[in-house]
Amino acid sequence: MVRVAESLQPSGPHQQANRSLTRKLWWFVVGAFAFGWALVPLYDVLCSVTGYGSKKELLVAAHAAERVDMARWVTVEFLSSVPTLGAWEFAPEQTEIKVHPGQLYEATFLAKNMINQAVIAQAVPSVAPNMATQYFRKTDCFCFTPQKFEANQERELNVRFFIDPSLPRNIDRVTLGYAIYDVTQTKSALQN
Amino acid sequence: MSASHTHDTHAAGHDDHGPMKGWRRWFYATNHKDIGSMYLIFSLVMFLTGGLMAMFIRAELLYPGTQVLDPGTFNSMTTMHALIMVFGAVMPAFTGLANWMIPLQVGAPDMALPRMNNFSFWILPFAFGMLLLTLLVPGGSPAGGWTLYPPLVLQTGDAFPMAVFAVHLMGASSIMGAINVIVTIMNMRAPGMTLLKMPLFVWTWLITAYLLIAVMPVLAGAVTMLLTDHYFGTSFFNAAGGGDPVMFQHIFWFFGHPEVYIMILPAFGVVSEIIPTFSRKPLFGYDAMVYATASIAFLSFIVWAHHMFTTGMPLVGEMFFMLSTMLIAIPTGVKVFNWTATMWKGSISFETPMLFALSFLFLFTIGGFSGLMLAIAPADFQYHDTYFVVAHFHYVLVPGAVFSIMAATYYWLPKWTGHMYNEKMGKLHFWLSTIFVNVLFFPQHFLGLAGMPRRIPDYSTQFADWNFVSSIGGFCFGLTQLLFVYNIISCVRGGVKASDKVWDDASPQGLEWTVSSPAPYHSFEVPPEVK
User: Active-site residue B173, yes or no?
Assistant: First the structure.
């Protein structure tokens, strides 16, 4: 077996060249393996250099929350509507509050399902004026997920928010409105 | 062997050494023809194994509802089918063709590194043995898709480390095979065969081999990270520990996109050999073909994130990856037009290899066009993860890569065995394959556009009709392949004696036709002179 294998080895000069090229190619493979691992820090570097990805935006948001503008007051109004649900009550606990930009607040809406069956509801928010939308930051909201109500159930729905301190100076009044819809059919279709 | 051989004492009288007897011939194989044959047989076995899984998938999708497989098994069938077809069937088939043909085409006595060649083949049965064993372990075989995305893949049961190590072994095998190809091509060419005189199959394989050694290690790194995330508490892809699951997709597709060219560039090489032969004209635009292949290889490294348009990339990223992807259409178009121009005013005959090559030309182009559609970022949001994607990549892989492997098999089989295959049965195999591959995959475009997601065992009844058609096409395509197996086996066993040129009236070009049929166990021990 050894004899046959040897007879198939290329002659002298080739063997030398083959060894040296093979060695170089193995180094190339090692380099490629290292490059695969280097991609991990490289992606972070790419994101921090270009500002791509959401990390930087999240940091801005976190920073905004730490910087409370105590000298400024903005009025936040709450609106609610029930376009399709029928026998429901849905209203904000307070119709408006005054807030400092940068400070975290919580507002409560009261919802009552007066239909004699369970309903899955989805609230859709809107902010006015349009300009203010990107400065109105909700950290937690009942509108993030569908809400299930048993027949005749009544409960509180909460939203936590703050106004970004970089809200343009000319805006001193922001309206947050919710329309609440019946999504029982689509949601239960998805679950089946 | 030359007189200046360093092992003079052993060298005497070795030239007519035949193969060893029995299992030793295969287990200790260092002969490129033996290893090439083992690769090709292994690939055929894996093709049938992966094909059987596809039959189960199509049987489940024949009707809406779940009849044949439970959803978990269905998911592991799609995952295993892909892993086996990509790493077990297509890649080893091309490596087998490389082993057989590259030394013959460049006028070398053997591959440059015969021992490593043996090792890189014999890793494969163990890798796939381990992968197939996962069907029996608790928790079932991997079912999170062949792309192995975390966090889903981390929910795999006991099969998880087995699948990861199997991928490691496949990678090691491919890397060694690629190094062998590069060293053989760079160092072992016959005198006078300059790089730009090499047959195109050799060229495409040289470039493929460089792609392999550049990206297989990256895949090995990515799956190792999955392993450490699972067992050692690292958080490469775990958001709770500061990692990012989307990063896996970036690393995976940095491997994955060059990988799709690894599976198609040698196919381009095969077609570039066959079309000139049966058109009785030299290949049109040889240099352009070489440069186009190199451009495709280069571009393959900068387009990976087109697989990830819906991950929430910044707009600039989507634009970049969309445009760079579309750029690939240019060198690919150069190739398609050059093959067409090769046939222009040629004296064409339609033997089985030519039929498969022509079918490749048409159907691969369809897959290329649907690829362009998927490259359009805004449109991709509709196509993403639907059957449209399934139709696209099956068009480039089945009537693309697989048809080229079949074409190559019919083209070179008489050279390997010394017998002609049954031409009538070959043509029957071709026509049934071409018809049913379209019945199988074309309706999947419609299903995808209508919104049917991929990787689901059950579907809405609106998709029932086209799924039924697709499944029928699938069963017929699967059965047709038994003709191929039968034809190969009977050609190995006997048949009409093939001449040295095999395709005499087409007078094929290339050194492989200067040796006798079947090719002798040792060929080109005295290097041929290339003018």
Answer: yes
